[in-house]
Amino acid sequence: MTRINMKMWPALGLLLLCPELVAGNFADVYGGHPYATGMGNAVSSFVNDSSATYYNVAGLGLPSRGNLLYHYMENREDSPEPDAWDSGRFSNLWNDTKAVFSDSITNVPKKRSEAHRHEVALQYNYAKPAISTNAPNNGDISNIQDHYAGLGLSLDLNSVYDLDRGLRFGLNMILPGSGNLATVNDLNPTVHRYLQRGVSNDRPLIFGGIGAELWKDHLYIGVGFTALIKGQGAILLKDVPISPDPVTPNQQVILELKPQANETLGMMFHWGKFRMGVSFRRETFLFVDPLTARAQTTLLGIQFDFDLAVLDLYHPRTFTYGFAYQASENLLISLDVSRELWSKYGLSRTKEQFYTPYYLEDISVPKVGIEYRWNQAWSFRLGFMRRPSPLPVDMPEEVNWMDSSQVSYMAGLSYAFIPDSGSNLKSPILLDLSLQSQRIKSRTELKANPTAQNPIYDYGGSAFHAGLAITVFM
Questions:
Q1: Which of 85, 154, 272, 448 lies in disulfide reach of 170, CB 3.0 to 4.6 Å?
Q2: 272 with 215: CB under 8 angstroms?
Q3: Distance between CA atoms of 207 and 262, rounded to whole angstroms?
Q4: What pLDDT, in 10s, does the model give residues 365-379?
Q5: 360-384: b or e for each residue (b if 16 or more CB lie within 10 Å)?
């Protein structure tokens, strides 16, 4: 019986179609929105568009960028003086510099329109890693293209009942360019595979939530969700002959998958020129438990039962702390630090029984951004992010995850098409563009007893990313 039991595992492995666990996601590696990417993703203390569902859901309680544009449109005709943002920018650079530290704790009511507008955002991101490694069996990581698209939506709930407070619902979906809805990978950690790039990102991300303004112009809270998949299934292997050689039985697979929602929480506090934010995102993973397998042999109808669990598409529990300083009407400086708890990753039951235990380390990801608004239509951004690898220096001998620390340099710009009296355009349209260059630090994986299948290898490279978003307000 033991011999037959062991011969079932090749068939089960084929059914699972899995060579390795994957982790990470597009938003963490490259960015959840081109506007935020241009600022190094350091936006958790002030983000106010549909991407707040990812960065800090409390930002949905802030006046949106569209609301600010409508406020400008409503007041530009009534103002006896030209708007400061519309005057010559070089003449105002000195005034902006002098205003950096003046009135830092003086509160001024936020600009906002009385119109309650909704937003729809479309984005596309081109991401091309260029990885160099001498590890064997790299067919699945050659010619990687981490393209992804996104759809964002926010609804101003004050259009239903006016509370004189910010209150919005937001939804943001990020979809892989491959079109795959789910790829289940959960078998052998000794196979050489990426932890944060390539096929590891090949899954959709769905973020949603609601943000509310509790203390007008000062305190904002939000609650939301990150959606993934959970389920259960069964495998039936019939007519399995007793043989010392591997066999291919008749197979029937039933897998039921349902959405699961893991909570996200956020809070922002604004006072004077200071912006502070904190957000929490619970760990997410695809989980199929139990995946019952029953094998029926051709000898007297004997049945053997196996109980498996599939755990995959892991993303760690994350706490993000943000601080920003609105130095002047046109200049914003921000700093974020995300703490990702990779050490909480747990092995599925399959791996617990058949593979060497391994561990990951918690990491802190610092991010810095700066934005300068040239005028009401144009704004420019620069950003920096350093992301350590959660892989420890001394990995278990059998484990061959590929990952390295990365340093990212970002730049971005925005342009707003603003309707005027002589235009057929009725609502503002925002264009956001971002460029990112990542340097993936070289790393050598040493093995105590290297073999052809498990050798000493080097890993490193770079990645280029460009994103474009179009936001329409209605």
A1: 154
A2: no
A3: 10
A4: 999 999 999 988 999
A5: beebebebbbbbbbebbbebebbbb
User: Could you tell me the two tokens for 7?
Assistant: 């011969």
Q: What angle do CA 16, 17, 21 make, to 5 degrees?
A: 85
Q: How many domains does the chain have?
A: 1
142: containing domain: 2-473
Contact (CB, 8 A) for 416 and 428: yes
Q: C-alpha distances in angstroms, 137 versus 48, 117, 134, 209, 453?
A: 44, 52, 9, 42, 9
Please check the confidence at residue 5 and state whether its pLDDT lies above 50: no
Half-sphere exposure of 295 (CA within 13 A, CB side): 24
* CA separation for the pair 110, 165 (Å, rounded): 12
**Percent of the chain that is helix, strand, coil (3-state, to 5):** 15, 45, 40
pLDDT at 141: 63
Q: Which CATH number characterizes residue 376's domain?
A: 2.40.160
Rounded (5°) CA angle 298-300-304:
70
For the whole model, what pTM was predicted?
A: 0.86
Judge contact between 185 and 24, C-beta under 8 A. Answer: no
**Residue 393 CB coordination number (10 Å):** 9
Q: How far apart are CA 181 and CA 189, in angstroms?
A: 23
pLDDT digits (tens, 9 = 90+) for 209-242: 999 999 999 999 999 999 887 788 887 777 777 7
